[in-house]
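Final report, Chapter 2: Outcomes

The project's central promise was a pipeline that accepts a single protein chain and returns its three-dimensional structure in a standardized token representation, suitable for archiving and comparison. That pipeline is now operational. To close this chapter, we reproduce one record exactly as it appears in the project archive, with the input sequence first and the structure output second.
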Amino acid sequence: MTSIQTLDFNKLLLDRTRCVETSLSLQDKKIYNLVVFSTIVLIATTGFLFLSSSFVAIGFFALKEISWLAGTSLIAIYAGVGLYKATKTFFQKVYQYLPGLNNRSNNCWANALMHFILHIPVLRNAILNTQSSELQSFKNFVLQYHKDIKNLRDVSLADSQNIREALSKMSFGESINSSMHVQEDAGEALGIVLSRLEYDSLDFPELNVYRKFSGKKRTAGIPIPFKWYRKSQEEGGLIILSASQCKGVFIQDLFDEYFNVEIKEKGPLDFCYEDSKGKIHKNTKGKCSEEHKRFTSAPQDIVINMKRFVMDTLPGRFADVSYRKITKPLKVSETINLLENVHLEEGLADTTYEITSFLVHRGSSLHGGHYVAYAKVNDKWLLFNDSVVSEASEGEMAHDLRRAYFYHYSKVSADS
């Protein structure tokens, strides 16, 4: 593991933002000095012109000297204006909080996705430690961005077009198009990245999936109670929630429903199941009526995908497919809780998580609109909008937070 892979990224961000905030704190003094200096130049120029006009009016100069005086006055004016602009540019140079990313064409989705990933430690570290050649472009991107933070660049040299091309190769050009003229789905792109990292360097805890079966088997007319059986294990890297019924609903409620689902289908869902001792049984008559999921350990990071794009198949002889966006707002709290026997296996302590970043798609169409990302850096919320990184306004952030596409929650430490 190289030194960059063990670097405290948060400390690097802290050093950068402190530098920026220091330059911002000096801004008032610099502007004050600029105004004073500019005022002196303007007053001197105005006084010179007024005095020269007075001399001309009373006839102290001949006609030949008047043209020389007018030329000198114009030179003084231009010199004063030029000096004012140069001084203003010098004094008002203030760095962005963090480097932005150039959008050469329709790559706002890739820019927002990479800003989102960069502020999720478990994903960032997995990319830095990856041995996969398919993810080398992602690794180079993170390393370049890290270098640009240290060098106080306003716009990073990391190129999101390389990310697009890498994703296009991984999806064989079907999910992601390599052409810069096509807007892509950031959610689908993140799914591709996670699928590669899960087999390589990603360290998410697993989810145990339990199912409870119901049937008609009886002993002496008394129904036999059916127990919970562990069916399988899933990767706990991405929690996918549906936005179809999210209006007025708290994200914690949808989160809870994901871990405790009531199956309403009538037919058998599985032909066999595994009991608590690992023995496989045929499920010939039983019906799966409930499903529970439990984390095997409390994760450090939780990534939630609020599924806002729905595929509709249009009727007709040649069926056509269209994507519809669900724009309903969601009630998002700053924290969510993982509870024992609700989200966590028995014996694990309840854990609290706080939101630290989210990704937003603005617009109504999957293949249009604009992507931005938000991240909390040293207790300050920043808006990442392609090449521009600025402090987020409270109203704009509140609006986007309720309509976000992805949320990242980070584990709250015990001493915080």
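Archive annotation: The chain has a mean pLDDT of 75.
This record, like all others produced under the grant, will remain available to the consortium after the project formally closes.
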